[in-house]
Prior knowledge:
Order of helices and strands: HEHEEHHEEEEEEEE
CATH architecture: Sandwich
Helix content: 10-25%
Number of domains: 1
Number of helices: 4
Cofactor: L-ascorbate
Keywords: Dioxygenase, Oxidoreductase
Radius of gyration: 16 Å
Structural class: alpha+beta
Organism: Prochloron didemni P3-Solomon
Number of strands: 11
Strand content: 25-35%
CATH superfamily: q2cbj1_9rhob like domain
InterPro entries: Pro_4_hyd_alph, Pro_4_hyd_alph_FE2OG_OXY, uS12_prolyl_hydroxylase
Protein name: Putative hydroxylase NikM-like protein
CATH topology: Jelly Rolls
CATH class: Mainly Beta
Amino acid sequence: MKDIKLLNLSAICQKMNTTPYRWKLVKNTFASKEYAKNLLDTFPKEGFKRFQRDTGSKRHYFYGRCLIDNYVENASVHKVDSLSNIWNDLIHELLSDTYRKLMSKTSEISLDGLRIEITCWRHLYGCFIDPHPDKPEKVLTHLFYFNQEDWKSTDGGCLRILRNSDIENYTDEILPLINTSVFFVRSDNSWHGTKPISIPNRARLALQVVFHKENMHYTTGYK
Length: 223
């Protein structure tokens, strides 16, 4: 499809897992390794804000930068001057009608009329996210990873697909490796989380795309 060059649509559109909820691991997310490497090499470095919650539900600590906030379907897309050309191309693809329809078909849920938020994450030493199922306003989340292939499970920061609120009760653990992505449909039991990053001087790099309802509190305020 002419509006999609970077994303590997055939890899993304495979059947989803249904246990313990609907989710899908995608390998070879991008159409070539060169695309993935260029995205890694130019991953945003500036403009990140620290998010931290030490008490209550969903304790967390990480750094984020919102690239697209509350995007309305079919609205015009403007270039983000601080991003490389390939990152701007990726954003255009993620906001395209082609990508929306593909994710809707694969997840078997309607994404018509939903807003889109796109955020970059940097998880540094000690960063983590407690188990949580996501707020009801979120409908579908797609996470793209950009770490070198030598990242190990013991380094922390791996997404765990959980059976419940116990971080150790997981069915799968996803390494945050370059050219890998994972998406899932939000439900009351869509528990997931990450253990703390255990290695200094390295960062877990990720891009998050969220299809959400209009009344969601956005990452810019992270409520």
